[in-house]
Design brief:
The complex is a heterodimer.
Chain A: H1 13-36, H2 39-66, H3 75-104, H4 109-112, H5 115-119, H6 125-131, H7 138-156, H8 162-189, H9 198-207, H10 218-227, H11 230-241, H12 247-274
Helix pairs in contact in A: 2-3, 2-7, 3-6, 3-7, 3-8, 3-11, 8-11, 8-12
Chain B: H1 4-20, H2 22-47, E1 51-52, E2 55-56, H3 57-74, H4 78-88, H5 91-96, H6 101-131, H7 139-165, H8 174-187, H9 199-207, H10 215-221, H11 227-257
Antiparallel strand pairs in B: 1-2
Helix pairs in contact in B: 1-6, 2-3, 2-6, 3-6, 3-10, 4-7, 7-10, 7-11
The chains are: A mainly alpha, B mainly alpha.
Chain lengths: ~280, ~260
């Protein structure tokens, strides 16, 4: 792979996209090599994944063992929300978290003062910070989440319509963009307050997304829909899957997620401009 | 061997220095508070205007708010304050001091309690104002609550301690910890009050030590148990505490003998 070919200096969009794609493949390969070097970690990671799945599903079973419906949500519908939560959590653990935490997390580059080495690389910093590190073991989480969604779908017993699947895919994409945007925004905030682990705040709030956002009391529901929009991330795709999402709502959610990505990218870059080099 | 003044000085020094980093610890406490809070909302909504599993909305709110406080009060940090010390070799320095290493662990334990409680208590008070728990206290429940809480803390502390001492033999205890966290989540009253767990899980919860680390004092205070059940609970709690203490003594004496370290 010759990154010094004339094309790599082209500023035309197709050239840049091709170069970005090549870089992502390099990063994935490097991360995979590093992860597979420690085989014991694989068993440990698999255990964590299974425990996460088990406790999530068992929690649901215990609740719905006592009641049939919780504010209109059935076991199958709530299972669908859990499935989306696990799916997006897996995507987050696959590359978004490892990459962004390397910059803003505990013992990250801002914490240790080594961000300068990242800044001098000949690639866009936001791109680098977002796709740098991959965690291949999260693929198991992805598969398990798919399984949960499959079971939820079967139990929902809804009439099949390709429109429903398309709506699900679109809202899932919007949810992923929203997740990325929120994490990027929290990462950007670290330039204003370097010692505070903002992503841990998000971890806590995101956990609330494992249940449908309609279950929470009024004020909290508004917070989870508009301030830290985790409700958009998990509840909306589940509603789309069950066929209960109005088209207008879907369009609004997609527009909202795109706006959020733009806003958080702006915030991240504003933070970078603020950054004065860490002294040696 | 019993350097009490030294121990007191160490305790005071530790909690003062931890208070310097309180935003970090407040964030930790916030994270630990979320799972019980989620299930508070889920069960309160499930109960709605009536009951779910025999408990009303107000009773669920009371149960989970007390659970949040008790969980934080008994929380075991020994994996980090003892286990990491052994793994990183810092235990060597502690073994040379004219002070039992247990003091160091107690100091970090008390420091933790002070810092976490200074976050959890105000937040829980605010939550109580917002969510309006149903409170009905009998005198004897309060009297039984305090020893139950003390025993719960001792049990969770020494249970965590012997698990952390496994670091003398194995460099990673992650798998065991992950498993224990899941068991605590399921069986110690977080997912649901123990009485609401389905058949086999409920039996397991009442036999294993995890319920007695968190849920038992909560159940005593909220009046969910008859005096006979409270008595039985104390007996099982005491029994598991003896087991934990025995394991701690055994592992400590064996572990220190064969302990070698690089680093620290």
């Amino acid at each position: 792979m010759n990154l010094n070919s004339p094309h790599s200096f082209s500023s035309a969009l197709p050239g840049r996209l091709v170069r970005a794609g090549r870089l992502v493949r390099v990063f994935m390969a490097a991360s995979a090599q590093q992860a597979l070097a420690y085989r014991a970690n694989f068993a440990l990671s698999a255990l964590h994944s299974l425990l996460k799945l088990g406790t999530g599903v068992l929690g649901l079973l215990v609740v719905f063992g006592q009641v049939e419906l919780v504010r209109g949500w059935s076991f199958a519908a709530t299972l669908a929300v859990l499935g989306v939560y696990l799916l997006l959590g897996a995507l987050r653990d696959l590359f978004i978290s490892p990459s962004l935490d390397a910059l803003a997390g505990m013992d990250g580059e801002v914490w240790q003062g080594t961000l300068d080495f990242t800044l001098i690389r000949p690639v866009d910093v936001q791109f680098l910070a977002s796709v740098r590190y991959w965690r291949p073991f999260a693929l198991l989480d992805l598969a398990l989440a798919g399984g949960v969604l499959g079971v939820a779908l079967a139990r929902l017993e809804v009439a099949w319509a390709p429109g429903r699947l398309l709506a699900f895919a679109v809202t899932l994409g919007a949810g992923t963009l929203t997740l990325y945007a929120i994490l990027l925004a929290f990462t950007g905030l670290v330039f204003w307050s370097p010692g505070f682990l903002f992503s841990w705040v998000f971890d806590g709030v995101f956990q609330m997304a494992r249940y449908p956002v309609g279950l929470y009391p009024g004020g909290l529901r508004l917070l989870l829909t508009w301030v830290v929009p985790v409700g958009v991330i998990t509840t909306v795709p589940a509603q789309a899957l069950a066929g209960e999402l109005a088209p207008g709502m879907m369009a609004a959610v997609v527009a909202f997620s795109l706006a959020l990505v733009l806003a958080s990218s702006w915030l991240f870059r504003a933070g970078l401009r603020r950054y004065a080099s860490a002294s040696s | 061997m019993s350097n009490v003044r030294g121990g007191q000085a160490l305790i005071r020094h530790t909690w003062l220095s931890w208070m310097q980093h309180r935003s970090f610890f407040f964030l930790l406490a916030f994270g630990w508070m979320i799972p019980p809070l989620i299930y508070l909302f889920v069960w309160a909504t499930a109960a709605g205007g009536g009951t779910a599993g025999g408990m009303t909305r107000g009773e669920f709110v009371t149960y989970y708010l007390v659970l949040i406080v008790v969980n934080q009060l008994t929380y075991a940090q020994t994996n980090w304050t003892v286990g990491d010390l052994i793994r990183e070799g810092s235990m060597s320095r502690l073994l040379l001091l004219p002070l039992s290493p247990l003091y160091n662990t107690l100091a970090t334990e008390i420091a933790g309690k002070v810092v976490y409680m200074s976050f959890v208590l105000p937040v829980t008070a605010l939550l109580a104002l917002w969510l309006r728990p149903a409170l009905a206290l009998d005198g004897w429940q309060l009297l039984a609550f305090l020893p139950a809480l003390l025993l719960a803390w001792l049990l969770r502390f020494f249970w965590g301690y012997w698990l952390a001492l496994l670091a003398f033999w194995a460099t990673r205890a992650d798998a065991l910890l992950a498993l224990q966290d899941s068991l605590i989540f399921l069986l110690a009253g977080q997912v649901a009050p123990v009485a609401l767990l389905p058949g086999a899980l409920q039996v397991a919860a009442k036999a294993l030590p995890f319920r007695y680390m968190i849920a038992f004092p909560v159940e005593v205070l909220t009046g969910a148990l008859t005096p006979a059940e409270v008595g039985l609970g104390f007996a099982v709690q005491g029994g598991w505490l003896v087991v934990a203490l025995a394991l701690y003594r055994l592992l400590w004496s064996r572990g220190v003998q064969q302990y070698t370290a690089v680093g620290g």
